[in-house]
Amino acid sequence: RQKILEAEDKQINLKDTADQLDCHPSQLSREFRRLFGIAPYKFSFLLRLAKTRSWLRRGQNLADVALNFEFSDQSHFTRAFRQVYQMTPNYYRNLYRDLWDQPTLHNHAL
């Protein structure tokens, strides 16, 4: 799980991860699912998808978000986002439109 968390915004390569852990990819996948109740690819996918939300809240372009988080294209990203969050990424992004131009607060003393 730690290797997936360290992968940042990128897809995991199960074979490379298994090689680093000196085991077979199938064994790694089975053990991961047994320990965490989810397949490693699905865990990585959901983690990457969750991280896209911070980019969307800042008003980032959908194509740029899709590219950065290694979705094959914007429509793949949109379908995945809609399937998990029951709304399009554009709709989600627009919920935060009012915040895009506001300056952020940085540790102001009261």
Question: Can you give a write-up of this model?
Answer:
Helix 2 (14-20) crosses helix 3 (25-36) and helix 5 (62-68) packs across helix 6 (74-85). The protein is mostly helical. The termini are far apart. It contains 7 helices and no strands. The longest helix is centred in the middle third of the chain and has 18 residues, at 40-57. It is elongated, with a radius of gyration of 17 Å.
From the structure above, extract its key features.
110 residues; mainly alpha; 0% strand; elongated; disordered C terminus
Oligomerization status of the protein chains: single chain
Give helix % range. Answer: 55-70%
What is the molecular shape?
Answer: elongated
- Give me the number of helical elements: 7
Strands, count: 0
- Give the overall pLDDT as a whole number: 84
> Strand-residue fraction?
under 5%
Low-confidence stretches: 106-110
CA gyration radius, whole angstroms? 17 Å
What is shown here, in short?
This protein has helices at residues 2-6, 14-20, 25-36, 40-57, 62-68, 74-85, 89-95.
Q: SSE layout and pairings?
A:
Layout: H1 2-6, H2 14-20, H3 25-36, H4 40-57, H5 62-68, H6 74-85, H7 89-95
Helix pairs in contact: 2-3, 5-6
